[in-house]
Prior knowledge:
By secondary structure, this protein is of the alpha/beta class. The protein is 42% helix and 15% strand. The radius of gyration is 16 Å and the shape is globular. The N and C termini lie far apart (35 Å).
Amino acid sequence: MPILYMPLMHIFVPRLPKASMEEKLRYLSSWVDSHLNDSEHILKKPVLFSEVGYLQHVDGNSTVDRDILLRVVYDKIYDSARKLQAGGGALIWQLMVEGTHMYHDDFSLVARDHPSTYKLITEQSCRLQMLYKNDRDPDWQCPIQP
């Protein structure tokens, strides 16, 4: 497809309200695999998962669940990128900063308020940066060891 530069995918797994966590993980894993495969073999383009989100619940499990699901997405993208395949990256929906609460939705998170999620984001950034690190950026160092 010469006109398509990069396919963008959106992932909002909690839209499966009655599914168990195991079912959500299976669905997500299969969904990411199929989009990576299609991008690699059919479109022959890198794919960016441009909106990865997890609904914030009041039950207290949302951070743990979000981190588990985000780890699945990140690991699959990293594995694909490491093999020089279609995995390009993932962006959190919606990553906010302090003082922007008026713009939040049910998927929003402030990284500082969710240290485990922030650590996952940082680790993924470091892993991908290390894959593509070159001599043009000799002073760059990952703030944490992945």
